[in-house]
C-alpha cells in the first residue's frame, strides 16, 4: 500500500467519526487492530490524519511502530513528532489539504471535545467550548 | 498525602492485580479515575510501583501530570523517566524493596504477559513465556 492510499483510509475513518460527533485517534486504531504479535506492529506503518498527541506518541513507541505518516500538522502539533524522530521512528508529513479542512472544521464546531482530547489545562477553555 | 502513603496505595493495587494474574499500569489508574477536569490531573501526583513504559509516559504528559513517584526502576526502566524530566515533570524514585520483590516475582512467574505488556518485539520471547 502506498502512503496516499494509507492516508485515504485514515481520512475515511476520521470523517466517519466526525460525522458521529467524535474524533478518532491512533489509540483507537491500535485497539481496533486487536492483539497482534509484536513483530506485526514493528513492521507496520501508522497512518494518521493529524500529528500524534503525547499519549499516541507513547503508544507508537510502546508498539515499536517504525514509520508514521501524518496527514497534516498545521492544525495541531505536539512535541510527539520530534520525539518520535529522536527515537528513530520515520515520520512523514503529507501536508494534505483534505485532512486540514476536516480538522479545522472539527475544532471550530466541537472545541470542547477537541481541547479535552488534547489535554488542555484550564477550565475556561473547556467551559468556553460547551 | 505523603509519598510513602501514596506509594502504599499503588503497591496494594499492584498486589491485588498480581493475585488476579494481571499487571496494572498507569493507564488503568487514569481509566479508573474517570473523566475529571484537566486541572485535577495537573495538580495530581501519579504513584506507580514501577517505572512507566513509553505509552504511560505519553499518557502522563497528555494529562499534564506534573509529578510522578516511582516505587523502583531496577526491574524495568524505559526512556520514559528521562523524557518526563526533560518535559518538566518532577520524577521521584523511591527505591522500594517491596515493589521490587513483587515485580521480580511477576516477571519470573508470568514472563509472557510481562513481555507483551512492555511491547517486546520478537516472537521467540513471547513463545518462551507461554
TrEMBL record, chains A, B:
Stored InterPro entries: CMP_dCMP_dom, Cytidine_deaminase-like
Species per Swiss-Prot/TrEMBL record: Neurospora crassa (strain ATCC 24698 / 74-OR23-1A / CBS 708.71 / DSM 1257 / FGSC 987)
Domain CMP/dCMP-type deaminase: 1-91
Gene3D superfamilies attached to this UniProt entry: Cytidine Deaminase, domain 2 (3.40.140.10)
Cited PROSITE patterns: CYT_DCMP_DEAMINASES_2
Gene Ontology annotations of biological process type: nucleobase-containing compound metabolic process
Protein name as it appears in the record: Cytosine deaminase, variant 2
GO molecular function: catalytic activity
Amino acid at each position: 500500500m502506498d502512503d496516499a492510499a494509507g492516508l485515504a483510509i485514515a481520512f475515511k475513518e476520521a470523517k466517519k467519526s466526525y460525522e458521529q460527533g467524535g474524533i478518532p485517534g491512533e489509540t483507537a486504531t491500535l485497539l481496533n487492530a486487536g492483539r497482534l504479535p509484536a513483530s506485526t506492529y514493528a513492521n507496520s506503518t501508522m497512518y494518521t490524519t493529524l500529528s500524534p498527541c503525547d499519549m499516541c506518541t507513547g503508544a507508537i513507541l510502546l508498539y515499536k511502530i517504525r514509520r508514521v505518516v501524518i496527514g497534516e500538522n498545521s492544525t495541531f502539533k505536539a512535541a510527539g513528532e520530534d520525539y518520535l524522530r529522536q527515537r528513530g521512528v520515520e515520520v512523514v508529513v503529507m501536508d494534505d489539504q483534505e485532512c486540514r479542512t476536516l480538522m479545522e472544521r472539527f475544532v471550530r464546531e466541537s472545541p470542547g471535545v477537541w481541547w479535552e482530547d488534547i489535554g488542555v489545562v484550564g477550565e475556561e477553555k473547556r467551559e468556553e467550548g460547551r
